[in-house]
């Protein structure tokens, strides 16, 4: 091999070495850039989390301070404070919903638990300020005792109008239905608008709630069909079985519930705990003023996470919880009223 060929080979080898060095340098630079971007992204998420935590806790403390002022105050002052606390809690729920994308599961659960505690405190303060009268049937005559337990036309009329006598007071004034069997129950938008609604100890009842409640509490429900207009904040379900529910809301939290179908529109993620046999489908009930009630509620009509369900008893990542299912399209109810 002559000198010219030897020199060319040496130059070619040097070029290849230089190219490899450049590629290695470029790969290292790209890797460093990716690490920097990941670090910056993590930093942004951490900053958002810190901002959320400080803002959330400050507003929670503010609501707790409002509630503490209820102690010893007159009824008018308590009512005003409860309205303020309720409005602040609704805004805090919206803040949580808007922050869910960057919160960890732990942060989300802590915030949801804090909200639940606030809502319970508001309900307790309202109960103390305006005690709910116990349901009591009037004494029946012996002749009445011999009659079938089927509700009379008059009783049906009272139930259909949403008015039931509770120790002489109309239950519609209390925004609740309690301890009733085999009845058709209705409340209008005027009854429920921006109010807390409680349904408890109902068996084989059909309930229609038109309008936009602030919150909805369902307790000890058996064999019922409950349809509700848009709830501006949360729906709490406890000890419900063999029932059908249809409701739009910001948050759904369900405890101790079995064999129940939920037709849902929810802007956050639904939560179940100590439940089994619960199934979900999109909200499908409709009535003439539904769109107006959505406007009043402030819910996003186009946002629905009905199939995004967190089971607090099922922590196996990547494996679907056996405690809830999606209702097949062919089995979903689309016609609710004759």
UniProtKB/TrEMBL annotation:
Cytoplasm recorded as keyword: yes
Domain of life, per UniProt, equals Eukaryota
Pfam families linked to this entry: TBCC, TBCC_N
Spell out the residue ranges making up region: Disordered: 1-44, 141-163
> Known InterPro entries for this protein?
C-CAP_CF_C-like (IPR017901), CAP/MinC_C (IPR016098), CARP_motif (IPR006599), TBCC (IPR027684), TBCC_N (IPR031925), TBCC_N_sf (IPR038397), Tubulin-bd_cofactor_C_dom (IPR012945)
- Cellular location(s): Cytoplasm
> Listed GO molecular functions?
tubulin binding
Query: Where are stretches of biased composition, namely Basic and acidic residues?
Result: 17-44
- One Gene Ontology biological process: post-chaperonin tubulin folding pathway
Known function:
Tubulin-folding protein; involved in the final step of the tubulin folding pathway.
What protein does this entry describe?
A: Tubulin-specific chaperone C
């Amino acid at each position: 091999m002559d000198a010219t060929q030897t020199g060319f080979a040496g130059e070619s080898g040097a070029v290849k070495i230089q190219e490899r060095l450049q590629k290695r340098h470029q790969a290292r630079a790209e890797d460093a850039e990716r690490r920097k971007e990941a670090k910056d992204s993590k930093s942004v998420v951490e900053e958002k989390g810190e901002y959320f935590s400080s803002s959330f806790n400050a507003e929670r403390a503010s609501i707790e301070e409002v509630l503490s002022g209820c102690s010893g105050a007159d009824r008018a002052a308590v009512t005003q404070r409860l309205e303020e606390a309720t409005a602040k809690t609704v805004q805090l729920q919206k803040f949580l919903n808007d922050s869910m994308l960057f919160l960890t599961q732990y942060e989300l659960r802590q915030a949801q638990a804090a909200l639940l505690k606030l809502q319970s405190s508001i309900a307790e303060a309202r109960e103390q300020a305006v005690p709910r009268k116990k349901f009591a049937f009037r004494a029946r005559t012996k002749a009445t005792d011999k009659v079938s337990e089927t509700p009379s036309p008059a009783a049906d009329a009272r139930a259909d109008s949403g008015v039931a006598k509770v120790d002489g007071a109309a239950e519609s004034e209390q925004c609740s239905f309690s301890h009733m069997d085999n009845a058709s129950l209705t409340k209008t938008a005027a009854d429920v608008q921006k109010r807390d609604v409680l349904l408890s100890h109902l068996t084989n009842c059909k309930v229609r709630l038109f309008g936009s409640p602030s919150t909805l509490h369902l307790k000890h429900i058996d064999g019922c069909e409950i349809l509700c207009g848009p709830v501006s904040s949360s729906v709490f379900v406890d000890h419900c079985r063999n029932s059908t529910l249809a409701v739009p809301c910001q948050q759904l939290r369900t405890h101790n519930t079995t064999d129940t179908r939920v037709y849902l529109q929810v802007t956050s993620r639904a939560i179940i705990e100590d439940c089994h046999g619960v199934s979900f489908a999109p909200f499908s009930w409709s009535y003439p003023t539904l769109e107006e009630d959505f406007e009043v509620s402030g819910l996003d009509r186009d946002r629905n996470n009905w199939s995004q369900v967190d089971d607090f008893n099922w922590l196996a990542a990547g494996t679907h919880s056996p405690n809830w299912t999606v209702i097949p399209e062919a089995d979903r109810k689309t016609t609710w009223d004759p």
